Amino acid sequence: MCHQTVSLVARHLEAHGIASVILGSARDIVEHCGVPRFVFTDFPLGNPCGKPDDVAMQRAIVGLGLDLLEKAFTPRTTVQTPFAWGDDESWRDNYMRL
Amino acid sequence: MTRTVDPTHRTFVSYIDKSREYYRARGYTNPYRWAHFEGVPFTALQRPLSQSVLTVITTAHLLTTEGETPWLQTVFSIPSNDPPTRLSTDGLFWDRQATHTDDVDSYFPVHRLHEFVREGRIGRLAQRLHGVPTEYSQRRTQERDAPEVLRRCREDGADAAILVPL
Fold first, then answer.
1. Does residue A90 belong to any structural domain of this protein?
2. Are the C-beta atoms of A53 and A13 separated by less than 8 Å?
3. Could you say which DSSP state residue A21 is in?
4. Chain centre distance of CA B3
5. Which residues in chain A have their CB less than 8 angstroms from residue B158's CB?
6. Domain coordinates of chain B in residue numbers?
7. Of A85, B62, B103, B145, which sits most exposed with the smallest number of CB within 10 A?
8. Over the stretch A6-58, which tens digit does the pLDDT of each residue have?
9. CA–CA separation, B73 vs B126, rounded Å?
10. What number of helices (H) and strands (E) belong to chain B?
11. Do B150 and A13 touch (CB under 8 A)?
12. Is the pTM of this model over 0.90?
């Protein structure tokens, strides 16, 4: 739900002359809404800017966001960061498990 | 780090699918209708990033101390030159089983952005950074909160915003 909220805010800012980039981990919600620029990191929800205490990863992800602010030339530009959460992929199934 | 991909599933989690099935299994037969638009506005950065003013917009909220009024569903702002070392992420949808939010820069990268400013990559941070309440009501976000965020961004002369949802 947070991803939808910021997607709506980003659209409003862009429509009024302020450039925006979203750093997030819920790809479907952001792209379903439609936003100008999106940096997707395929992580469990909670750390869209990099793993806790991993300064190098955080710099890389924020840096990609800055790159996108400068270089995107059309809306709906998504880039995916190269990071994976780890060997244990169980979070994908565990979140909201039925 | 590489991972083994299950080719029978899409590579990323669909939270729209997951939440629909989750709530349907609990008896909610009227699924949430997620925001969707055909057209997408676009504003190019008007100046080089090294001369631009950036702000940050989060869905986290301020920590309250004991006895203080609980957090309200309203836009708030904090000074960029004295950023918090922690924010509250209670009440928001994120994966408490897989991770934690004890490091503010993992979801609100204000210290990383200060580093980029010092290195000259960004002109400067806007005087204020902003919090926006997470709302089921798209109308409340679009008609109440987004215009308020825009007003504050304009007051501070922000050229661009980095938005960071939990």
1. no
2. no
3. E
4. 27
5. 18
6. 49-164
7. B62
8. 999 999 999 999 999 999 999 999 999 999 999 999 999 999 999 999 999 99
9. 23
10. 4, 5
11. yes
12. yes
Q: Which residue of A has its CA nearest to B164?
A: A23
Comparing CB atoms, the residue among A47, A76, A94 nearest residue B107 is A47
**Count of structural domains within chain A:** 1
Number of helices and strands (H, E) in chain A? 4, 3
- Within-domain flag for A98: no
In chain A, the residue whose alpha carbon lies closest to the alpha carbon of B48 is A70
State how far residue B31 is from chain A, nearest Cα, in angstroms: 14
Closest residue in chain A to residue B20, using alpha carbons only = A96
Task: Give me the tens of pLDDT residue by residue for chain B, a chain 166 residues long.
Answer: 556 777 887 889 999 999 999 999 999 989 999 999 999 999 999 999 999 999 999 999 888 776 565 666 899 999 999 988 889 888 888 989 989 999 999 999 999 999 999 999 999 999 999 999 999 999 999 999 999 999 999 999 999 999 999 9
**Separation of alpha carbons B160 and A21, rounded Å:** 8
Domain span at residue A56 reads 2-81
| Residues of chain A contacting B105 with CB distance shorter than 8 Å | 49-50, 55, 58
Nearest to B37 among A33, A48, A87 (CB): A33
